[in-house]
Amino acid sequence: MLLFLVVGMVILFILNITIGLALKHQFDRNLRPHLIQYLHFVQQEIGDPPDIDRARHLAQRADIEIYIRGPGLNWSSGKEALNPADIRFRRPPRRRHRGPDHPPHLRPFAIGDYRDRLVLRTGIGRHVAYLSIPKRSGPQHAVAVLLAAMGGVLIALFVMYWMIRRLFRPVQAIKETVQGFGDGDLNRRIHIDRKDELADLGHSINNMADDIQQMLEAKRQLLLAVSHELRSPITRARVSTELLDDSKLKYNLVKDLTEMETLVAEILETERLNSRHAVLNRCPTSVHQIVSDVLKDHFSEQDIRTQLPDNDVYVMIDGPRVKLLIMNLLSNAVRHSENTEQSPELSIQTPDAHMLIQVRDHGPGIRPQDLPHITEPFYRADPSRRRQTGGYGLGLYLCRLIAEAHGGHLSIRSQPGEGTTVRVEIPVATDSP
């Protein structure tokens, strides 16, 4: 809109200059000779020396006011005397040649403005005559015309702006849809009810989204199929390993097979929660019991500080999946607290029908450039992907999916050298046991 206003002001300025120059040229070319003839007629009518009676009669007949100044004469046909110093005269252009219709005794005339009147100045012998002609359109009329012109230009600019906005309206829809694609929502589509180049662009983007969605679905199906097929050989290898004598080799094999089972289970669980038809089995679940089961089954040898509600609370959640969420968060905290003196901390509160799960470690923290991507699937801050520095890159992603499946969200705060705090907020219905 600001650009259109600037353009409108430029247009008005150009029109003012061009029309002014055109009118000036028209005046010099066509109207000036007529004014010269008119002043010649006035000279002849008044006479030289000026005849006051004839000048008064001419002023009454032509509805003008005549002022004559000169040696021994200062006469005005009107009630108000004229002061030439108050008149703003415009300097006439120099004339190189005098036409045959220009009287040799007529001095070059001048045109000026005095209040709401047009003043013509000419010479009569040794005297100077001023002809004051009232402007039929006064200052108020000129202001009204100017305001009307500006209003018309503004209306035209507004209509033009509205038409251009309507023309490029699909650009906003395309922008929002593409931004949705960037956020991972490939189900969005662009709806454009028109037939032009922008509509063709929208249809092309929709076709592109369909192709990408098909490729991702094919990749997902392949990943699920491979994960399912891996379960059987891993189970057989686990059974065979258990038959070996106790040794360090058996311990390492069992550990590796357990990690493979965990990876396959996380992949399958991730794909289930990532489906649009993900179903949660919500039931009243004890907060104290969840924490107790996780610590007993997975962290019995770890020193983890806990902070739970004083009175046990039952919340409507999918218990097994929330256990998996807490287990993954604590696994990350324990892994990054191996070389620190302070133990990981687990806090669960239930204020205002919300379940707040917070896990904090005092490890090295997460770099700022890695923090926005840390909950993406298979993303790891360590590019070498060493087992000592992290898991598979699915733990936090799975935690985020579990939180979002419950209608909540996961957030992470971290500073290098100060540790990391993961906060999960889930809306739940609470009840006392």
Describe this structure as you would to a colleague.
- A hairpin with a 3-residue loop joins β12 and β13.
- Mean pLDDT is 78; it is low at 96-106 and 384-389.
- α1 runs antiparallel to α3.
- Helices cover 49% and strands 18% of the residues.
- A 6-stranded antiparallel β-sheet has the order 2-1-6-5-4-3, with helices on one face. Strands 8-10-11-13-12 form a 5-stranded mixed β-sheet, covered by helices on one side.
- By secondary structure, the protein is an alpha+beta fold.
- It folds into 3 domains: 2-136, no CATH class; 182-273, Signal transduction histidine kinase, dimerisation/phosphotransfer (DHp) domain (Helix Hairpins, Orthogonal Bundle); 279-431, Heat Shock Protein 90.
Q: Rg to the nearest angstrom?
A: 47 Å
* Class by SSE composition: alpha+beta
Number of strands: 14
Task: Note the overall shape.
Answer: rod-shaped
Termini Cα gap:
63 Å
Order of strands in the sheet with most strands: 2-1-6-5-4-3
Which regions contain 5 or more consecutive residues with pLDDT less than 50? Answer: 96-106, 384-389
- Name of the CATH architecture of the largest domain: 2-Layer Sandwich
Order of helices and strands: HHEEEEEEHHHHEHEEHEEHEEE
